[in-house]
Amino acid sequence: MAVKIITNIGTLVTGSIENPVLKEDTVVIEGDSILETGSADLLKKYNGAEIIDAAGSTVTPGLFDSHVHVTSGDYAPRQKTLGFIDSALHGGVTTMISAGEAHTPGRPKDPEGAKALAVFTSKSFYNAPPSGVRVHGGALILEKGLKEEDFSYLKEQGVWLIGEIGLGSVKDPEEAAEMVRWARALGFKSQMHTGGTSIPGSSTVSASDVMTVKPDVVSHINGGPTAVDLKEVDRIMDESDLTIEIVQCGNPRVADYVAKKALEKGQLHRVIFGNDSPSGSGIMALGILRNICFMASLSGVAPEKAVCCATGNTARVYGLDTGVIEAGKKADLVIMDAPMGSVADDALGAFAAGDIPGISMVMIGGEVKVKTSRNTPPAKRKAK
Q: I need a surface site. Which of 157, 179, 322, 376 has the fewest CB within 10 A?
């Protein structure tokens, strides 16, 4: 297989919150995966490889958006917008996790229809990923009447996600908890709407509800967009070890509170980032970059660890083989630098200053998908 080498890297951010920065400046890619990392001496080892000069820029794993409401293809009917996934790619997002296809026009709300929608959406995104973005769709919305055998059928069809619990007709926490137990036994990952209502049809979910259901991810703990009371946040963070999601379309005050509390408690590994869009709040092409900026510039979190909340943390909770720069992981990478005019010298400094970095390259599975983002400011230094 063809070998590509990214070298002359200024800062290599791994995505692993235990070891967020490597003192290495070269990444070797073979096919769709990372082969090894090291120094520029690797160019001699792989003579004839295609060389990408990072020009002193920062390299990070491709970013995750842990909370999207896709429907089919790259169209968002709630905001009547075409191409939102491609726009997110230009914001460094290479992987999206569906929180449920709740915005699908005429969404079926009976068990058979809910299963059919999940299977269709899951397979369609895997068959034709928009702009190459890894979209994990087909997140089953829990509806009354679903039975244990339904989850076995869905697993056989490749479905492995439970969308935001609370969006469907299953509202009772005990009923939802039973379905989550069925699904978890088969390897499903589950998410739960947390906080006040977001759109017609959703419901208010309390800390007690979350503790009863025990989802894998506490969706938008800072609200989607209405957050729970801070005492409710404390209960979830103090009395559980559940993964906590901060979203761009949520309450900024609560986002700051959660980030600072996670930092104080040594629990940044529990925090992941999503957009919660397309939604009534709109579409945020640079939402994940903005989440990193927010946490790094206002909440006191080291920027390299904030990047991990958008990469390796999410990959770990969902059991995916990307989001971390190490041998054997998929080569989903972003090359970025401080934007022109910034007070910062590099991308991490830009995050700490609250500036959106300039992206000069995005790669998915070893293939360059973006050369110079159309959505970020221009980078001071550009990969070539």
A: 157
Cβ pair 311, 289 in contact under 8 A: no
Tell me: do 273 and 361 sit in the same domain. no
Is 77 in the same domain as 104? Answer: yes
> Are residues 83 and 183 both part of a single domain?
yes
Largest CA distance in the chain: 62
Distance CA 303, CA 188 (A): 31
pLDDT per residue over 117-140, tens digit each? 999 999 999 999 999 999 999 999
Residue ranges of the alpha helices (H) in the chain?
A: 42-45, 84-89, 111-127, 148-156, 173-185, 207-213, 230-239, 252-265, 287-298, 303-309, 312-318, 347-353
For the chain, state the CA radius of gyration: 20
Q: Are residues 219 and 328 in the same domain?
A: no
Contact by Cβ (8 Å): 170, 179:
yes
- Entry pTM: 0.96
CA distance 266 to 312: 16
- Tokens encoding 275: 């957009």
| CA nearest to 171, candidates 153, 149, 193 | 193
Q: Among the listed ranges 48-52, 198-202, 222-226, 280-284, which one has the minimum average pLDDT value? A: 198-202
